Structure formats: C-alpha cells, structure tokens
Amino acid sequence: MKLIRTEEAVGHVLCHDMTQIIPGEYKGARFRKGHIVTAEDIPVLLSMGKEHLYVWELTEGKLHENEAAVRLAELCGSEGMKLSEAKEGKIELSAAIDGCFLLDSERLLRVNMVDEVMIATRRGGTAVKAGDKLAGTRVIPLIIDERRLQEAEEAAGKAPLMRVLPYKLKTAAIVTTGSEVKKGLIQDRFTPVVKEKLASFGIETIAGELPGDDTEEVTASIQRMKDSGADIILCTGGMSVDPDDNTPGAIRKSGARVVSYGTPVLPGAMFLMGYYPDGRPVLGLPGCVMFAMETVFDLLLPRIAAGVELTKRDIALLGEEGLLQARGRAASKF
C-alpha cells in the first residue's frame, strides 16, 4: 500500500471505500475498495477533497480481483450461459436458455482445492430456466498472486467446467403394462402422470398401448412404439421381481442395450435405463413414478431430454442424496 497524488492514480487500485457527501442529496460510497481509478474519476475524487489516495501496488505477477474473477469465469464456459460483469471480484453465470445444466464435478473439486479461489454452482444434471443463476466465481484476496490462477487453470483442464444444453427430444411413446389395466379392471393412472412430466420438457406423447403382461405382447408393443418414430420409449409398470413382471425382459428382447436395471435411489430402485442402436433411449419406470412427487425418473429426465447419453457411472453417482424421502420431496402429488 502506498500514498500517491490523486492526479497520478489512474490505473491504480483503491485500498478502501471513498465516501461522497452532497448536502441534501447523497451520502454513500462513491468508490469501493478495489476500484481501479480511471481518468474520469480524477475530477470527482478531487471534488470530494481527496488530493491523495492510498492505493495497492500492483507488481508483476499480481492480479486485481476483477481480472482474476474473469479468468475463473473463463474456466466455466459459455455454452447456453451468460456472464455478468466483474464486480468486487465476483462474476455470476446464469442460464441463457431453458435446458439441462451439466457440470464436471470432479474437475470443479480440483479447482476449489486451489487456495484463494472459488467457484460455487448449483447441482449438475438439473433443469434450468433462462435467467436462473447457475454459478459464481470469486477470488478471496483483493490482490492475488497470478500463480494461483495458473494452478486453477491447470486443475480445470482445457474443456469448460459447465454448460447448458437445450432439450433435444420432442416426441415419446408409452407402453403401459399390466393385465388389470388392459382388461379395464383398474384405471390407467400411469400414462397421465408420465405425459405431464414429459410435457414439462416440451416432449409430446404421440403413441401408446396397453399390452398386458405377456412378454411377447409387451415386446411387440414396444416394437410398434419404436416404429412410431418417437424419440423416446417409456415402459411403465412390471418392473419388480414378481413372476408376472416381464417388462425388463421385454425391453431386452426389443433390442435394447440395458445400461442399468436398478438404481441407488429411493423411491425408484427398480428403474431401467437402456438405448437402442440408433441412440434412442428406452426407460422402464417403476410403480412409484405414478404417485411419488420425485423419483429417479425426475432426477434423470433433464439429461435424457437434452439428449445426454447416460452411463452406469452416472446412475451410480445418484446414490449420494438418493434417499429422496429424506429430502422431503417424495410425498404424493397425484
């Protein structure tokens, strides 16, 4: 920190707030700590009686907090996002579109292990609306050693840490199993719930059938739904271990590659995730989807709707925070 004449302060960083008083009009901080003095600021500072200023001495290899925040924000990326201006060492990122917010959690952790820098985000894999806040970057000190930023950049790697993808899937077909539904003994409560959830992501249900429980009939029904041209096939019910529950077998017989049958999420443990050779997803939905407010289906649907191909690892990672009842969001909605 050093004291210099105000006229010589252009380009220097203020060490403390500067209060301006205009009798009867205004009293408050006219310039904040960390502000970089410009030529336009000089007459204002002099009018405030500030003929000398305490400023930070920016030496080679040191960065102002705003410049450092910009470099942190560049690690985050820009796809489907917009950035605020740097202010007091902070930049906020928000969604520019409706879509799915994706995040590389492992690389984010490596960045946040670097001293004196931070990036805070919302949880990855979630649905966002345009304008939603996604992340914020900040450095801890007012002036930071550039080596800290270089460490953060090395930890982040070349690829952006996050992005927002627009929803890609547009149409769906639903196979609702169960002989009791096919015979009309009970009302089909599954299809309306699933259609509503899909519609919230802009997905229109264009076909549906009630094939009963016979594996061959369910398999044939799934094939007809594939032939409908739908972007995603959903099979509801028949996902447990009862002898008459043949939906997983029918999905396999229909030509799907099953990524995972069973998930570390409650409710939703009996969920099936698969893909056909053309990349179209096929889902086996357990009965809880019909009545619980949030299940594994809700956790994965944003990524599925955005066309992200899920892996066994993606699903296994849901185990942490997978006890949805403990989050108070698994109560009946329908």
UniProtKB/TrEMBL annotation:
Pathway: Cofactor biosynthesis; molybdopterin biosynthesis
UniProt keyword terms in alphabetical order: Magnesium, Metal-binding, Molybdenum, Molybdenum cofactor biosynthesis, Transferase
An individual GO BP term: Mo-molybdopterin cofactor biosynthetic process
Catalysis performed (reactions): adenylyl-molybdopterin + molybdate = Mo-molybdopterin + AMP + H(+)
Keyword Lyase set for record: no
Ranges for domain MoaB/Mog: 173-306
Annotated EC: 2.10.1.1
GO molecular function term, any single one: molybdopterin molybdotransferase activity
Keyword Magnesium: yes
Residues spanning the membrane: none
SMART domains: MoCF_biosynth
Biological role: Catalyzes the insertion of molybdate into adenylated molybdopterin with the concomitant release of AMP.
Protein name in the entry: Molybdopterin molybdenumtransferase
Native organism taxonomy: Bacteria, Bacillati, Bacillota, Clostridia, Lachnospirales
